[in-house]
Specification:
Number of domains of chain A: 1
Strand content of chain B: under 5%
Order of helices and strands of chain B: HHHHHHH
Shape of chain A: elongated
Strand order of the largest sheet of chain A: 1-2-3
Number of helices of chain A: 5
Number of domains of chain B: 2
Low-confidence stretches of chain B: none
Helix content of chain A: 40-55%
Largest sheet of chain B: none
Oligomer: heterodimer
CATH class of the largest domain in chain B: Mainly Alpha
Distance between the termini of chain A: 52 Å
CATH architecture of chain A: Alpha-Beta Complex
Low-confidence stretches of chain A: none
Shape of chain B: globular
Number of strands of chain B: 0
Distance between the termini of chain B: 42 Å
CATH topology of chain A: Sufe protein. Chain: A
Largest sheet of chain A: 3 strands, antiparallel
Number of helices of chain B: 7
CATH class of chain A: Alpha Beta
Strand content of chain A: 15-25%
Order of helices and strands of chain A: HEEEHHHH
CATH architecture of the largest domain in chain B: Up-down Bundle
Structural class of chain B: mainly alpha
CATH topology of the largest domain in chain B: Monooxygenase
Helix content of chain B: over 70%
Radius of gyration of chain A: 14 Å
Number of strands of chain A: 3
Radius of gyration of chain B: 19 Å
Structural class of chain A: alpha+beta
Mean pLDDT of chain A: 93
Chain lengths: ~130, ~170
């Protein structure tokens, strides 16, 4: 299959690969997996006291489109609020990367990973608030 | 005609792989283009369609995860839904740990670690297949759906280790 130039760029030079400290109370982790293809994706975000994402890292084991989708969202996430992050739609990711219809599910996976990471940081924040 | 009927196999998860392979080869040779050189164009088309379907059917039934998903689809259950990427957290954690261990072993060109990971993951996959057999027998379709979704990940990670061992050998 022919990948778009943007997918190839992210695939060959993925941005922000790695991990943050999952035990850090300001770090949210989102882990998702696509049963359609067996791809797994981990997205971690570090959020400051103003609710702004200061850092984002990912690890994806899967096809080029899944790697590119998660690499792209780490770039988009930095500097955004967690509310803005939560509002990112898979269609925007698919459009930016010019994903073909059979690879749309890779962008869905990236959107799900963002939502899971935001849910995790919110759970950590409310746990802290009740202490 | 469904994939099981095509190969004259009972629609069960624990199918006989040897029979699947021999019936597949038989259909492939019966529908081989060389046999249809002088046939009418309708016969050529029909034999080509049979060969294509047999190939798809074989690829599906050969893979335990895809076979389970196909069995569920025959019973109206969609195990693979591209909009549903929710998997149990502990399961995904384990997948990530395996993936990272494989990546480290690959970078270290450590074939023996890859082989022991293959054993470990192969064993976990076999256990899952045993559970699936019993879940299908007892028509526990909801449990079977969860196991099927997990099995597709296990098949994938297993296939990826086999590939990286071949690459290093």
């Amino acid at each position: 299959m022919a990948y778009s130039d943007k997918v190839l760029d992210h695939y060959e030079n993925p941005r922000n690969v790695g991990s943050l400290d999952k035990n850090d109370p300001t770090v949210g982790t989102g882990m998702v997996g696509a049963p359609a293809c067996g791809d797994v994706m981990k997205l971690m975000i570090k959020v400051n006291e103003n609710g702004i994402i200061e850092d984002a890292k990912f690890k994806t084991y899967g096809c080029g489109s899944a790697i590119a989708s998660s690499s792209l969202v780490t770039e988009w996430l930095k500097g955004r609020t967690i509310e803005e992050a939560y509002a990112i739609k898979n269609t925007a990711i698919a459009e930016e990367l010019a994903l073909p219809p059979v690879k749309i599910h890779c962008s869905v996976l990236a959107e799900d990973a963002i939502k899971a990471a935001v849910a995790d940081i919110k759970a950590k924040q409310s746990a802290k608030a009740t202490i | 005609m469904n994939y099981f009927e095509l190969f004259k196999l009972p629609p069960t998860f624990g199918l006989d792989v040897a029979t699947l392979e021999s019936n597949y080869r038989k259909i492939q040779s019966e529908s081989h283009p060389d046999r249809f050189v002088t046939a009418s164009s309708a016969e050529k088309l029909a034999s080509m369609q049979t060969a294509t379907m047999a190939n798809e059917a074989y690829q599906t039934l050969k893979s335990p995860g895809l076979r389970a998903a196909y069995l569920l689809s025959l019973q109206g259950v969609a195990a693979i839904d591209e909009k549903n990427n929710q998997m149990p957290a502990d399961f995904l954690m384990q997948q990530m740990e395996w993936r990272e261990a494989i990546e480290d072993a690959e970078n270290a060109r450590d074939v023996s670690t890859l082989e022991s990971l293959l054993d470990e993951i192969g064993g976990a996959g076999k256990n899952l297949q045993e559970s699936l057999k019993s879940q299908f027998q007892h028509h526990h379709l909801s449990e079977a759906t969860t196991s099927t979704r997990k099995l597709i990940f296990m098949d994938k990670v297993r296939a990826d280790i086999v590939k990286s061992i071949e690459k290093l050998d």
